[in-house]
Design a protein that fits this description.
five-stranded mixed beta sheet; about 900 residues; 37 strands; alpha/beta; single chain
């Protein structure tokens, strides 16, 4: 029978909404698990529960929202909980029950919203599971109910406190005028960019349910934190909130952090509020500015004042805070929440002594937030996280617990540190991301060059087909003879180690002869794409200041004015070296090529790479993918793009055949299908956007000879991986990564045929003799899952930018990530480590973009636009119109 009804308190309306959205999700369902090392009298236990339920109206409450102006809670005169007994139980049965019991949930419109289940493991070993909906009561109420219930069960003499009913608090709450809090919340929430992103997980798509994970925090650092807090007039809650803020900041890369925190909301309300059984708490946004330059004590002092300032407005309904913020009504202000309690429920109840001291208690419960942290004080703190598996997998949640513990340990060990110096990286994880995953040493010949490797291959297969285009083909011996003849001509023109040679030619056999000849002469080739605009070519030719320029007859007249000696390649395929001996070879440290990339200052910059770097790249590639005499490699990448380097030289050091696509053919999927099928191409490269277009052509499925396809130059979308294996199930797809400033690719990942569209396709692991480091703004390694800037180390790091010492010093840095300090390249790419030791590319840290694999700096585009006479004139007129 219904005996009373009254409105809802602060958090209860949100819990009704959670129930209506997903009544079987387990959200807001609490399971109190009590291990009883004693024989249990079931009848007496049932009677004890009935007595306590009759005593507290909150335990006999249901909720009504249909046919009423506002939802209300209804107290019934009789709503006793079910007590069900499972006589023969084991651990697996208990685990299965807890999972089923949570998703069983409750019908909020029908009391009782609690139930009791007993599991008998042995005569004197029982487990009681008290399941209830959180909407009935808050955490301060749990021990009150359990103390009273067990006192009734034990027959202990207990003075029953005349507790005020929850309705008294609700009556007080519903008379509050919150308009006075509007100014506070508008100021506090002004400019909040949005909910702080939750730490990204790596779980399987479509995962369901919630995880619950616990970690103990040792006594010694716990005591150290308590001493630190006391010395600086802080509370442990302030310290925990600081650690949580740092965790969210490091994982999100943001310094303006918001999370939800629970306030007890009992003080300053009505007399006797501390003893009420009901739902009095409120969860409110805590906004924290992470200030790396402040000392830990000073920063936590600011956080203490932030927390104290909430006292006068702590009852404000969250819906009003949302309304008074700058955010839309449908955008959450926070996606994570934090709860701090001085003691665990187990410690609180054991402190009662007597029979309670031998009983064990733990709590399971799920919120509607993707991630909730719970920290309990004591001699050893207890750290817990509750995660929504659809957003954060259990492995990530456990790792977050570790990061939280490491932050607290760092605070305890370095109380005088600045906020920036508080580390989230444990010694074990540092060893993992710095050393173990970068253990890539492979012994390659230290003096090898492109020239020496090609000479060796010529001696092995002189009569095998080396290269062909639509008009001409050359064997290895013929190619070597033509290139030697041209190299001698280049030597006579002053080309030698360190000398740049421009090459402006259309894709052809002559182009290959030119590139091989330049490195044979000891020089470094500079690709000059004839399709480039005249002013860009003019800048590159002038900037490189190459004394010699190799080109073709029909291109030479179109080139901008320059002072280089021109050598035409039109008859290069007929050149013959009658001497037959090799020229003095270059050294491994000499430049092999220079490729221009887009420049942020408006001018392209030439990135120089040595023989040692590209040789390492090719020897690793050969070891990994095993190119052989029967293989055919398609060269279709514009040679101003660094992928072309391996397309040219890998087959020529491995004895395979190189097929040159016709000029412009790389843009025509129909032509690519034709040449691949006709020539039996087994290996090729695609920029992911072009691979998507290629696969969209149904005829791509006829390229059955394809064995390995390399993708790089852009992020590889997971749907392209799926489309690839649907069209070419007999081939293998590889995702490679590397900037022009290093010798082509520095990481690799084999896309498995069974890939199930992960959120991000990783760029993989470092290749031989290279290292990948993900560093924060302080140049410190980041833990697994935490974004940072990707730095590259090892033999493939390039020599720097031609004629740009300041830019070289800015991007090619010496960092003490490992001892001794080593030279690294700062990529400007945002990345993070995955738990399996692969790296994910997460985008750029600047404004650079990729278009079909080519790096484009908006600064260069802006510079070009502003240089246009019409734009210049418009800018002048605009300035003249300014007041």
């Amino acid at each position: 029978m219904r005996v009373a009804s009254y409105p809802l308190a602060a958090l209860q309306p949100a819990m009704v909404v959670n129930h209506l959205r997903a009544p079987r999700s387990g959200v807001d369902v609490v399971q109190m698990v009590c291990t009883l090392h004693e024989a249990v009298d079931v009848a007496r236990l049932r009677a004890a529960w009935e007595t306590v339920t009759a005593r507290h109206g909150a335990l006999r409450t249901s909720f009504s929202w249909e046919g009423v102006a506002e939802p209300e809670q209804v107290v019934h005169d009789a709503a006793m909980p079910d007590v069900v007994v499972h006589p023969g139980a084991d651990d697996s049965a208990l685990r299965a029950f807890l999972a089923e019991d949570r998703t069983r949930g409750f019908d909020l419109a029908a009391a009782p919203l609690q139930r009791v289940t007993l599991f008998r493991f042995a005569d004197a070993e029982w487990v009681m599971v008290w399941t209830f909906h959180h909407i009935l009561m808050d955490g301060r109420s749990f021990p009150i109910v359990l103390r009273e219930m067990f006192a009734e069960y034990d027959g202990a003499a207990m003075l029953v406190v005349a507790r005020r009913p929850f309705r008294d608090f609700v009556d007080w709450y519903t008379t509050r005028d919150f308009s006075g809090a509007e100014g506070f919340w508008r100021e506090r929430m002004r400019g909040l960019p949005g909910a702080t992103p939750v730490p990204a997980g790596f779980g399987e798509p479509n995962a369901t349910g919630r995880g619950w994970h616990t970690r103990m925090f040792a006594a010694e650092p716990t005591a150290a934190l308590e001493r630190f807090a006391k010395a600086n007039k802080l509370t442990m809650n302030n310290v925990i909130q600081g650690a949580w803020s740092l965790l969210l900041s490091r994982h999100s890369g943001e310094t303006d952090i918001a999370f939800g925190a629970t306030r007890a909301c009992r003080k300053g309300t009505i007399e006797g509020a501390d003893d009420i059984v009901g739902m009095l708490i409120n969860t409110l946004p805590v906004r924290v500015q992470v200030k790396p330059e402040l000392t830990l004590a000073a920063w936590l002092g600011e956080l203490r004042e932030t927390w104290r300032s909430l006292f006068d407005v702590e009852h404000t309904p969250l819906r009003l805070v949302q309304r008074w913020s700058d955010m839309s009504a449908n955008a959450p202000m926070f996606d994570t929440s934090l709860v701090f309690e001085n003691l665990t429920l187990d410690a609180t109840l054991k402190a009662e002594g007597g029979a309670m001291a031998s009983r064990d208690f733990y709590l399971l419960g799920g919120t509607n937030f993707p991630l909730t942290a719970l920290v309990f004080g004591g001699t050893e703190m207890t750290l817990q996280v509750d995660n929504d598996r659809s957003m954060i997998d259990d492995e990530t949640a456990v790792r977050l617990l570790g990061h939280l513990a490491t932050l607290l340990e760092s605070m305890a060990a370095h109380p005088e540190a600045t906020v920036a110096e508080i580390s989230m990286l444990s010694a074990a994880e540092r060893e993992l991301v710095v050393s173990e995953w970068n253990a890539t040493d492979v012994a390659y010949p230290p003096d090898a060059t492109l020239v020496s490797l090609m000479v060796q291959q010529v001696s092995r297969t002189p009569h095998a087909l080396a290269v062909r285009d639509e008009r001409t083909s050359l064997t290895y011996a013929e190619l070597d003879s033509c290139a030697r003849a041209l190299a001698r001509r280049l030597r006579s023109l002053g080309v030698g180690p360190g000398v740049l040679v421009g090459v402006c030619a259309e894709r052809s056999v002559e182009m290959v002869i030119a590139l091989v000849a330049v490195v044979k002469a000891g020089g470094a080739y500079v690709p000059l794409d004839p399709d480039y605009p005249a002013d860009r070519l003019a800048f590159m030719i002038g900037d490189a200041a190459a004394p010699v320029l190799l080109t073709q007859g029909h291109i030479a007249p179109t080139l901008p004015p320059h002072g280089a000696t021109v050598v035409l390649l039109d008859d290069a395929a007929t050149f013959t070296d009658n001497i037959g001996t090799e020229l003095p070879p270059p050294s491994a440290g000499d430049p092999a090529y220079m490729i221009y990339t887009s420049g942020s200052t408006g001018k392209p910059k030439g990135a120089v790479n040595a023989h040692s770097g590209i040789v390492n790249r090719l020897l690793w590639m050969q070891g990994e993918y095993q190119l052989g005499a029967s293989d055919v490699v398609l060269q279709k990448t514009p040679f101003s793009f660094d992928v072309s380097v391996w397309e040219f030289f890998w087959p020529l050091i491995a004895g395979a055949s190189l097929v040159m696509a016709k000029p412009g053919g790389h843009r025509d999927t129909g032509y690519l299908v034709q040449v691949m099928t006709e020539r039996g191409v087994t290996v090729c490269h695609f920029v992911p956007s072009m691979l998507r277009a290629f696969l969209a052509d149904r005829a791509s499925a006829t390229c059955v000879a394809l064995r390995d396809v390399m993708a790089s130059g852009e992020a590889l979308p997971p749907d392209v991986v799926a489309a690839f294996y649907a069209a070419l199930p007999g081939a293998r797809l590889h995702n490679l990564y590397g900037p022009t400033e290093c010798a082509v690719d520095v990481s690799y990942w084999a896309c498995p045929p069974s890939v199930v569209a992960p959120q991000v396709v990783p760029i993989g692991r470092p290749v031989a003799n290279t290292q990948l480091y993900v560093l924060d703004e302080g140049d410190e390694p980041t833990p697994v899952g935490v974004p940072g800037e990707l730095y590259l180390g090892g033999v493939q790091v390039g020599l720097g930018y031609h004629g740009r010492p300041e830019l070289t010093a800015e991007r090619f840095v010496v960092a003490a990530v490992q001892a001794p300090a080593s030279r690294l390249y700062r990529t400007g790419d945002k990345a993070r480590w995955r738990p399996d030791g692969t790296v994910e590319y997460l985008g750029r840290l600047d404004f650079q973009v990729k278009i079909r694999g080519f790096r484009i700096e908006p600064g260069e585009v802006e510079s070009a636009v502003l240089a246009h006479p019409g734009v210049r004139e418009a800018c002048v007129l605009a300035r003249e119109d300014e007041p």
